[in-house]
Amino acid sequence: MSSPQRRRKGLEFRTGTPKRFVVFSFKDFDINQGQKFEEWEQEQILSNMLTRLREICAYSVEEALAKQIIKIYNSFPENSDFNHPKHVPEEVKWATIRIKGKERVAGYVEDNVFFVVFLDKDHRFWISEKKNT
Question: What are the E-state strand segments in 3-84?
């Protein structure tokens, strides 16, 4: 009796180092600061955010940084309307993603994961002086 042979039917296996695409986590999302998903949905911003996050998933963190899609600030901003949440470690590298206009998603990056912490529709996480006004 011969043993059955398994064949790979059109499956290709990748070799080499796989590209580590950006992925998102909402495990540290802070419902006490910024806005909730429901508010962004009512203001028709939520679908813009989801579309933007889906687009970003096609990049590695290095590519997203090079294209300035993700902007890293390292420490928590001193000039902010937000407070550092107690459930987020102090040493994380804080970052933002521009959604559209003033809208930002703020969080931090570890490896290839962007942890979403705040929804910031009014650009109040990292307050900067207005340019060309």
Answer: 23-25, 70-74
Instruction: State which H helix or E strand residue 94 sits in.
Output: strand 93-100
**Domain 23-83+90-120, CATH class in plain words:** alpha beta
> Residue 105 in contact with residue 49, Cβ under 8 Å?
yes
Instruction: Give the pLDDT confidence of 80-123 residue by residue, as tens digits.
Output: 999 999 999 999 999 999 999 999 999 999 999 999 999 999 99
Per DSSP bridges, beta strands 113-120 and 23-25 are: parallel
Please give the model's pTM, rounded to 2 decimal places.
0.83
Strand partners, 100: 103
Contacts of residue 70, defined as CB under 8 A and 6 or more positions apart, other chains included, come to: 22, 56, 61, 64, 95, 96, 97, 109, 114
